[in-house]
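Q: What structure does this chain adopt?
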Amino acid sequence: MIDGYLTPTGEELATRGTRLVAAIVDGVIIMLIIVPLVILLAMIGLDLGEGLLANVVSTIFGIVAFSLVHGLLLISRGQTIGKMLFGIQIVDQESGKLLPPVRVLVIRYFWMMPLSVLTWFVPVLGTLVGLAGLVDALMIFNTDRLCLHDRLAKSKVVLFTQNRGKLDS
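A:
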């Protein structure tokens, strides 16, 4: 499918290291939003404690924070803040165009959410969900550099190009 660093459409794939560092930057940004928010809630007396309520609220905070910070950028540019900093973007595997919102947000980023929700009720599944996340990340070492979430969303991460077309939803 991919010969060396170029895709069949001639685009250069993002390096594994660049993708990793961009993902770390994105995670730190979200943590810088969520952690102070949880501390603030505790300071005003809304202690979430542990259990189902804490899981639900923290999951909602995470989804909302990610969507507010990165959602519009992903839809309009195929980038998160980390990807912008490192000059890479997410595009369709075949056409090289930007992905529709459902594919880039729901399928590519939130695909593990239903599995994570199951762990609230069946905690032993947490190990399997963690293993799925590990398999997802390790798949980047394939020659095509596609993680599981890339395969599910039919996406690839390439060097940034201004004014890409968009796929129809």
